[in-house]
Amino acid sequence: MNKTHFEEFVKSNEKDLRRIRNTYFPFIKERMITGYNIHMKEYPFENAEFILSYLHANLKPNDRHLRELSDILSRECSLEKIVFTNGRVINRSEILQREADYLTVPNWDDPQDMRYFTLEGDELSRDDAKKLEVVIGESLQYNLLIRLSNEIDLRNIVNVFKKYAPKYNLDRKGNSTKFKNKDAIFDAWYVPMLFFSTKVKKPKDFIDFLTVKQFNIAEIIGEKPVNFSTLVRKKAKYLKENLQTLDIPFKVNKRYVLRLAVSNYIDA
Questions:
Q1: 174 conformational bin, left if phi > 0, alpha if psi -120 to 50, beta if neither
Q2: Other C-beta atoms within 10 Å of 257: how many?
Q3: Which of 103, 123, 174, 206 could be cross-linked to 259 through a Cys-Cys bond (beta carbons 3.0 to 4.6 Å apart)?
Q4: Quick one: 119 exposed, middle or buried, by C-beta within 10 A (0-12, 13-18, 19+)?
Q5: Of 241, 231, 237, which is closest to residue 262 (Cα–Cα)?
Q6: Res 90: pLDDT
Q7: Cβ–Cβ under 8 Å, residues 36 and 23
Q8: Is the Cα dihedral 252, 256, 260, 261 positive or negative?
Q9: Using CA atoms, how far apart are residues 102 and 92, in angstroms rounded to an integer?
């Protein structure tokens, strides 16, 4: 598959990526954050009542994970199949490419093209990385956005993700039951990264989602503005103080993250 414009753009600006690593890897080392994403732009659905985000490494057009997920959403939620048109996705869905840097451990099924770094920012081979207890992985990944106009549709689609996206079954509160999920689609993750934003209050029915703060920072790569974002809960105050100390401007927005992703990753 030919490289995308975003992929070429990122790979051709290693100097700026190194500067960003040098700035933010210490935050990962201190566990203020567990990782971050870099997008070319912020969310494109400013006027949506709800925006559901699903982060995964395998959301390219030919990826089996995306094909199976798209078929299920079309069948069970009447959501139009996710079809690419000139690099974008039609109707109320869109997939954004993201440069993802995050803590990873040896038993995770990382993308084949993932680069690995120590917590101090030194690059490692894949074999050496798998010998360590924890390292930072970096790779091109994806963010599936789904625009929704009411909480009934949001609840229905969330239930579908909870049924098919995790490797182990989830209970009503969004915790893992430790029972292997017989309905899991190909490349389901142990901890699905699922969250939503809304212009209104969090619906009362969503006890399976916890309130988290998303820090957004305007960064520069290749002399172009990009959006750096990270999800934080317990360490939000600590992160805010450190960003202010370094004179790094930021914005904070509320996000509502699947409980399992918070307890087993963001706050772990």
A1: left
A2: 25
A3: 174
A4: middle
A5: 231
A6: 45
A7: no
A8: negative
A9: 28
Q: What is the pLDDT of residues 230-267, one digit of tens each?
A: 999 999 999 999 999 999 999 999 999 999 999 999 99
CA distance 22 to 13: 15
CA-CA distance, 205 to 198, in Å (whole number)?
Answer: 14
What sign does the CA torsion over 215, 45, 37, 77 have? positive
Q: Is 78 exposed, middle or buried (0-12, 13-18, 19+ CB in 10 A)?
A: exposed
- Give the 3-state secondary structure of residue 84: strand
Contact 258, 267 (CB under 8 A): no
Those residues whose C-beta lies under 8 Å from the C-beta of residue 243, and which sit 6 or more positions away, are: 215, 217, 250
Whether the CB-CB separation of 229 and 173 falls below 8 Å is answered with no
pTM higher than 0.90, yes or no? yes
pLDDT at residue number 251: 96
CA distance 244 to 250: 9
CA distance 113 to 118: 17
pLDDT < 50 positions in the chain: 1, 83-90
Two tokens, residue 38: 């870099």
CA-based diameter of the chain, in Å? 50
Q: CA distances (Å), 38 to each of 7, 75, 102, 141, in order?
A: 12, 32, 12, 10
Q: Are 209 and 174 in contact (CB under 8 A)?
A: yes
Q: Which residues contact 174 (CB under 8 A, 6 or more apart)?
A: 162, 207, 208, 209, 258, 259, 260
Distance from C-alpha of 24 to C-alpha of 42, rounded to nearest angstrom: 19
Across 131-164, b (16+ Cβ under 10 Å) vs e yields eeeebbbbbbbbbbbbbbeebebbbebbebbbbb
